[in-house]
Amino acid sequence: MAQFSKMPQIPRKDELLSKAFQRARKIKKIIDKHDRINSIREYEQNKISTVSTVISVTIDNILLKTPKIDTLDPFHKHMVELVIDADQFKKSLAALKWAARFNTGICHKYRRRLKGTPLKSLAPVRKECYGRVSSILKQVKKDFIFLEDSRNILKKLPNLKNLPTIVLAGYPNVGKSSLLKCLTGAEPQVQPYPFTTKKILLGYIDEKIQVIDTPGLLDRPLEQKNKIEMQAMLALKYRANLILYLIDPTETCGYCVEQQKSLYKDIRSSFEETQILLCETKYDLQPRKKTPKKSLTKDTPYFLSSKTNEGIDPLKKRLLRSIDWKTYSFKPISFKSPPGNK
After folding, report:
1. pTM of the predicted structure, to 2 decimals
2. Which of 67, 111, 233, 300 has the lowest CB atom count within 10 Å?
């Protein structure tokens, strides 16, 4: 997801401490012969300041470049909430903010303390400060780990563009990923078994139409859908200007036609305001007749074969001609008769 692609890598607690202490060790110890004690005191103060700065700057950079979940658009906000614990994400960011402020306050306190500290006690006081800083970061150790794990998940979420958007929907293994490849040239993983698609995949038709390949849906209540299916539902709800519902009449997908028809009816009733086109896939596996067979539903389907490319180019051209650039949507598309492999 674009919003999280610039989120910096989150170091572990020990990595951040090591970085801070290493930077402090590089400070040159310059002794003024005429003011030996104060020059050593300043040296120890500078080491504390360096540790404080490295920790605060690192955490501030994380906070600055991490998007606020509540400011995201509904699609991306729900996607984030689907793949990570959003509440814990917010709490962990708040914990880091607390650690940065507390670290600054502690280091400032010990810098002032060094002003009245005897020479022999300067290094021990500085080390005591290091111990306090380490203790602070230890309290947010799990937050560093959680945020980095979350970052690795969030950066893989799709980066959607502001373009007319088609969402491919249907049961698993009906040919959605294959159609995405044919329409856009994208290279999704295509395998002959269900649920190959584990996340939303993207492709573009002539850089004018955004096509989203969703994980396969099953015909069951919303509360029973898994996280993979919920990604598809979010895409349908928030981003679809046009839905291409794919149905496999050969049933080689592993699901009978009646199940696929039931899901089609469910999607039609759930997204009444979104234009839906029915496409029958795997046309190369269907028995050939002089006239196209009757539709599996009352709606006129578009017959496609991703294997032989039948119906692909006509569909692509029709989609491009149907773009309404004023609204970034699609003008109504209908088929007077099944185009088959014409």
Report:
1. 0.78
2. 300
